[in-house]
Amino acid sequence: MVEISIKYLGDLRCEARHEPSGTVITTDAPVDNEGRGESFSPTDLAATSLGTCMLTIMGIAARKQGVDLGETTVKVLKEMTAQPPRRIAKLTVVFTVPLSASHEKRAMLEAAAKSCPVHLSLHPEVVQEMRFDWVG
């Protein structure tokens, strides 16, 4: 179990502290939802969690197989619903992997990424599109 302590700072801003490490992050409501948009919004963090979780699980699998992912990157595009209730409608995750498209571990690495706990925990109504660009 991990404890995260959250404090409301006013003006739609919160501060969250990861108790095991002491790391602190700030969130803001987005401009289109009455906020300042000066930091990640809570839904931005959900999108970030998906991308970082997928890349982390892919990295674990790569390390176990002796594969160097180099400077693999991930971009996550978050789309919100146009109509209430306000929620994440779609997350598009685009990997850029500096390995050959014919790499022998490609299928295993893509499957590992798709097995991440955040991907598996999101509500089924949140559309999740994944694209892996193998550019090596």
Structural class of the helix and strand makeup? alpha+beta
Element-level helix/strand string: EEEHEEHHE
**Which stretches are low in confidence, meaning pLDDT under 50 for 5 or more residues running?**
none
Radius of gyration: 17 Å
Specify the helix fraction band: 25-40%
User: What fraction strand?
Assistant: 25-35%
Total of helices: 3
Compute the average pLDDT. Answer: 97
Q: Largest sheet, described in full?
A: 3 strands, antiparallel
Strand order of the largest sheet: 1-2-3
Rounded to the nearest angstrom, the distance between the terminal CA atoms is 39 Å
Task: Explain what the structure shows.
Strand 2 (13-18) and strand 3 (23-28) form a beta hairpin. The chain has helices spanning 42-65, 106-114, 117-121; strands spanning 4-10, 13-18, 23-28, 73-80, 88-97, 127-134. The chain starts with a strand and ends with a strand. It is built from three helices and six strands; from the N terminus they run βββαββααβ. The longest helix has 24 residues, at 42-65.
